[in-house]
Automatic annotation (TrEMBL):
Residues 661-909 form the EAL domain. SUPFAM superfamilies: EAL domain-like (SSF141868), Nucleotide cyclase (SSF55073), PYP-like sensor domain (PAS domain) (SSF55785). Residues 518-652 form the GGDEF domain. InterPro entries: Biofilm_reg_signaling (IPR052155), EAL_dom (IPR001633), EAL_sf (IPR035919), GGDEF_dom (IPR000160), Nucleotide_cyclase (IPR029787), PAC (IPR001610), PAS (IPR000014), PAS-assoc_C (IPR000700). Gene3D superfamilies: 3.30.70.270, EAL domain, PAS domain. The lineage of its organism: Bacteria, Bacillati, Actinomycetota, Actinomycetes, Pseudonocardiales. Residues 263-314, 361-405 form the PAS domain. Residues 439-491 form the PAC domain. It comes from Amycolatopsis panacis. This is EAL domain-containing protein. It holds the Pfam family PAS_4.
């Protein structure tokens, strides 16, 4: 119902309107409601309202026509089903609404259908405004309101049952089941209202195509209905919505039609006998049915009176005895009739074949076909186009007049491979030749304007029951847009959205479908230090870098190569152009050089490099696509481990090493909790007194299957997997407790030295963990020395200084380990408030035989003493090395000459 179709204005009889609304329970005294009424009984619909509508809608002072239009829009959810809704039904609906001043409000509608004799003639209701922020409202809530109104207004009965119990029934359902209130249906078993003979078919097919079933009303009467059940929940107890449409009248009508059809099979047309001067002498039952004149009233009347038209039998006979005329029934309704006239001995026999239904059907058919979005073309047996509907002309891009009489073979069609379909293989030609329907064939159609259109086409015989009829009807739907959308979705499903390169799915697919007889190469590239770019410059810069890297790889490869992004900063290239080792080396170096060109992003010039893993795939290589990517990934990690910015070829031993590494990492996780890890202690000796003054705690792992695992193997594993924080906390807690106990039991003055890794310095839980160890074990802070490698301190000196300062505040001592392997100076180290400097074993080994080594160590000792550091020499293996260190003034030493790392029992007895 459009707004401009309504005549609208304020209600004249204000008191009467308010009284009616209050009587209906829709309007309360002193409320902000505005009463309105919609009348649809006769003539144009009219919409009236009480004063104040402009205020409620937030458009003060606007015209009556504008208010009528706005109110009509608000009422549209209620009026859409109004003609099929019974009187005295109440509805309530809330809708958002924009006032003239731009504020948002909600309009609440409460209405009741009114009418008489079971026919609705309008609405009486009130509306009021509420703030937009009314609690509990949402777009979903409003959608639910609209859906509820539509369900309530539905002329079909709708029930919902869950777990076999009815939970909802709309008004039509109450009427259909003769229920006076919802309580007579809701809460009762659904099966209670289904007859025994129908229960099996209906309840066994809870989600079904339409089926007929017999139901029982509340009063015990039965009726037949067509039902459709739809499941409305995906989990928990199933809930079903059942639409029930009473087909009892339809079945009765069908029975009447069958009875009438039996009669018509004997006498299907009206047969009338008349005298020479046109007086009716015989009137069969068919005539009674067609013209609505009973036999006893029709006989004796003039033929023109009962047919509702003039009839000249002699003129009809002169033109062959058959004429078409428009007759009229007794009530004046027009009839399209084919009249056949024959002479009789005492007048004429007139046979009137009622063609009204056929003509109406033909008209309806032409109207429906003309309104279809689907193109329809009828092709005559000679292959010429007989008719086209407007949709066909629109899709084909040709006016209908230019298609009629044109051979169907002039339409140019192509199959999905792009080949033109020959004239004798066109769907219409094949149907005409074989009589077989060509169903849903997808073809491309070339229009005269050069545009290509994809259509789904069906070709079938116009009259399959006529063995000689080879006229064909072709129907087709334009699927160009749908096909384009499908192509885009398929592309998006197999391509990376950031770089538009192939994604992992497409790369794996191409590898699975590789040309087996030929060789192939997979190059797995990972950008070096990309995380630093992402973390320091932000993800937008990182994304742009990835786009540039992907585009460079695409341009550096051939048209047959596959370039993909697997995620993060990982790219892959699959090529068949470079398959020999020398060729692949050159190709990999070329890709690396292309990536290494400077990248300018947001005014910053960045330099990229990549580590590349390479897999050569032979002609008979049995590995799957997943295996090939895995092996290329392994080779890439090998390249990173050997210094980054290089490429490595995969071999089987590399996979075995990687698999062992993976197994060892998993075993190490279990070792933490299964008692396989233990602490070894190595003595640290004072070179002036020769006494042991400290022990260094070293972590050891005894594997249940492989025995002792070297720290050189499992410590790097722990560093990479971040297990080092767990291991570090374990060794610190265990050794501090052990040494505290030994100091108390034996009165020892030994101190404990424990190593900290790079990752531990980054661990925010390090300081609390050290504080907890000191408080729980009783080890004095000054008896604990935490050792940090020189390279770890120099990695981020400011961050390291912050951590060391926090540790210093706990009272522990700090040492720099492996001094001489990094790039620090003693001045830098002094700013880090260290206590001890440990000279790396590489300077100590062979010191007794090398003046240069001795001179370097002497310089380190002198400079360390100058800034107040205690010097410890690592890796002392011989007595000569020990004696020389004592002469050079070294404070302490440790090494195999002084004592190997041993268990606590061996160390402390």
């Amino acid at each position: 119902m459009e707004a401009d179709a309504l005549a609208g204005g304020p209600i004249d009889d204000t008191d009467s309107a308010i009284w009616r609304a209050r009587l209906a329970g829709l309007h309360q005294a002193d409320s902000g409601d505005v009463v309105f009424a919609l009348h649809t009984s006769a003539g144009p619909a009219t919409l009236t309202w009480l004063p104040g509508l402009d205020t409620v809608l937030g458009h003060p002072g606007v015209s009556g026509n504008e208010l009528s239009g706005r109110l009509t829009d608000l009422l549209s959810p209620l009026t859409v089903q109004l003609p099929r809704t019974r009187p005295d039904r109440d509805f309530e609906l809330e809708q958002p609404y924009d006032a003239a001043d731009g504020t948002r409000r909600r309009i609440r509608l409460r209405a009741r259908t009114v009418g008489d004799q079971g026919c609705t003639t309008g609405l009486l209701g009130v509306l009021s405004a509420m703030p937009e922020d009314s609690p509990g409202r949402s777009d979903l809530g409003e959608l639910a309101d609209r859906y509820r109104v539509l369900v309530e207004l539905s002329p079909d009965a709708i029930c919902v049952h869950q777990g076999g119990m009815i939970t909802y029934a709309n008004r039509a359902a109450l009427d259909l089941f003769a229920a006076r209130s919802p309580a007579e249906l809701v809460g009762r078993p659904f099966a209670e209202f289904v007859t025994a003979e129908s229960a099996g078919g209906l309840l066994a097919n809870a989600e079904s195509e339409p089926i007929e079933a017999m139901f029982t009303r509340v009063d015990g009467s039965k009726f037949t209905a067509e039902t459709i059940s739809v499941r409305t929940t995906d989990s928990g107890t199933p809930s079903y919505q059942v639409v029930i449409r009473d087909v009892t009248p339809k079945l009765a009508a069908a029975a009447a039609v069958r009875a009438r059809a039996a009669l018509v099979s004997q006498v299907s047309d009206a047969i009338v006998a008349i005298t020479a001067d046109g007086i009716v002498t015989s009137w069969n039952p068919a005539a009674e049915s067609v013209y609505r004149w009973p036999m006893h009233e029709a006989i004796g009347r003039r033929i023109r009176e009962v047919l509702g038209a003039e009839l000249d039998p002699e003129a009809a006979l002169r033109t062959g005895g058959v004429v078409g005329q428009t007759h009229h029934r007794r009530d004046g309704a027009p009839l399209s009739v084919q009249v056949s006239v024959a002479e009789a001995t005492d007048g004429y026999v007139v046979v009137c074949a009622d063609q009204t239904a056929r003509h109406r059907a033909e008209l309806h058919y032409r109207t429906v076909v003309a309104a279809l979005d689907e193109g329809v073309v009828v092709v005559r047996p000679d292959g010429l186009i007989e008719s086209v509907n407007p949709a066909a002309a629109r899709i084909l891009g040709v006016p209908p007049a230019q298609l009629i009489g044109v051979p169907c073979a002039t339409l140019v069609l192509y199959d999905e491979s792009g080949a033109r379909i020959p004239a004798d293989e066109l769907p219409s030609a094949r149907t005409r030749r074989t009589g077989i329907t060509q169903n849903g064939q997808v073809v491309r159609l070339r229009r005269p304007d050069g545009r290509d259109v994809w259509v789904a086409l069906t070709s079938r015989l116009l009259d399959p029951d006529d063995p000689h009829g080879v006229a064909v009807v072709i129907s087709f739907t334009d699927i160009t847009e749908r096909r384009a959308i499908s192509a885009r979705l398929a592309h998006d499903a197999t391509h990376d959205p950031l770089t538009r390169l192939a994604n992992r799915t497409l790369v794996l697919d191409r590898l699975d479908r590789r040309n087996r007889p030929g060789a192939t190469t997979v190059l797995f590239l990972d950008l070096d230090k990309f995380k630093l770019i992402n973390d320091s410059l932000g993800h937008p810069v990182g994304d742009q870098v990835l786009r540039v890297a992907g585009e460079r790889l695409r341009r550096a490869t051939g048209p047959a190569d596959v370039v993909g992004r697997l995620g993060g900063d990982e790219f892959v290239v699959v090529t068949t152009e470079a398959t020999e080792v020398a060729e692949v080396r050159t190709f990999a170096a070329h890709l690396r050089s292309v990536l290494a060109e400077p990248v300018t992003v947001h005014g910053r010039q960045l330099h990229l490099d990549a580590s590349t893993g390479i897999v050569l795939i032979g002609e008979t290589d049995p590995r799957s696509a997943e295996d090939l990517l895995r092996d290329a990934d392994i080779a890439m990690y090998q390249a990173k481990a050997r210094g980054r910015g290089r490429f490595e070829f995969f071999d089987v031993e590399m996979r075995m090493r990687m698999q062992r590494r993976l197994r060892m990492e998993q075993d190490l996780r279990e070792a933490v909790h299964s008692g396989q890890l233990w602490a070894a202690y190595q003595p640290v000796v004072d070179l002036r007194t020769g006494e042991m003054v400290a022990v260094e705690a070293l972590l050891r792992w005894t594997h249940p299957k492989h025995g002792a695992i070297s720290p050189a193997e499992f410590i790097p594993l722990a560093e990479e997997s971040e297990l080092i924080n767990i291991l570090g906390k374990f060794i610190l807690q265990d050794t501090a407790r052990e040494l505290a106990a030994q100091r108390t039991e034996h009165g020892l003055g030994l101190s404990l030295k424990v190593n900290l890794s790079v990752r531990q310095l980054d661990d925010p839980h390090l300081i609390p963990a050290v504080r907890d160890v000191l408080s729980t074990t009783g080890l004095p802070p000054e008896a604990l020395t935490l050792e940090v490698t020189e390279s770890a301190l120099m990695r981020d000196a400011s961050a390291a200084a912050e951590v060391l300062t926090a540790l210093r505040s706990l009272g522990v001592l700090l040492a720099i380990d492996d001094f001489g392997t990094g790039y620090s100076s003693l001045a830098q180290l002094r700013r880090l408030t260290l206590d001890t400097l440990k000279i790396d074993r590489s300077f100590i080994t062979g010191i007794a035989d090398s003046r240069d080594a001795a001179a370097i160590v002497a310089s380190i000792i002198a400079m360390a003493h100058a800034v107040g550091l205690t010097v410890v020499a690592e890796g002392v293996e011989t007595a000569d090395e020990l004696e020389l260190l004592r002469e050079l003034g070294c404070d302490q030493a440790q090494g195999y000459h002084l004592g190997r790392p041993v268990s606590a029992r061996e160390m402390f007895g």
